[in-house]
Amino acid sequence: SSIIFIVHAQYIGKPQTTNEIKAVLKHSVELKCEYTGEDGNGQFLEWYKDGVAVSTEKAGHYAVTTTEKESTLTIKIFVVNDTAVEFWQVKTNKLGYEEPSECRFGKISAIPSPQSIETNRANEKIESRQGSIRRSEDKAVVLKCIIEPKPDNYDENEIVWEYSKDEESYSTLPPSVTKEGDKISIEHVKKFHNGFYRCTINNVTFPVLLRVKDRLAALWPFIGIVSVVIVLVIIILIFEKRQKSNKKSSTDDDDQDQANDPLVRATTNPSDNDTKKRAVNA
């Protein structure tokens, strides 16, 4: 006689498939399928989206890690195209549980969140959370928080703007910063406006660093170059003046030496020699 062991397989999806899954654009999303059966082996095969294996997609967008007890699909950067997928699932090699319903996930919707910041300058858009802008003192600055996707009942006043000197602790906006809906503006930016400004909605933030330059900052390199040129000209003039002075002094010394040298005097004074010759002949 033979003994047949019946193993009760059990899969658990995380997040739970009965819940609506939401994610933030440009952030990562994780779907996990755990196996809690008595045999300890879920026999996971591959992850699929709308019936197409994710391994056939562009490399780098998805990552799959699998052990005997769990398999995880990570969407590294959640984008708009991912919101169009109707269902996500993992398949197994376990008889009767080839497509466990507990690990079949529905659509993932995008949470409205800050995705970039635009300024009052044409074509200036900060799309990186480590981005920065520069302004000279007394120039105007406008920062607009771009929310994607925009909800139907979108209210710009729900956006919260905050300020930080060091990006560690944020507080209220500095003086003379005006908030209007999804925008903040500074009519005449000053040095004390230096720092990080961030907009927040649905607990998602987007910061930008404002760097304020001295109004004369652009002139300092020019002033430095002019100063160096002036110093060089002065040095050259002093050097040439000293050369001329040394040359004149050397000439005067040579003339004096010649005047004091008896041989030079004898050679250069023929009238004395002629007088002596006439005296001898007489």
TrEMBL record:
SUPFAM superfamilies: Immunoglobulin. It comes from the Eukaryota. The chain crosses the membrane at residues 218-239. Residues 273-282 have a biased composition (Basic and acidic residues). Residues 243-282 are annotated as: Disordered. Residues 114-203 form the Ig-like domain. Keywords: Membrane, Transmembrane, Transmembrane helix. This is Ig-like domain-containing protein.
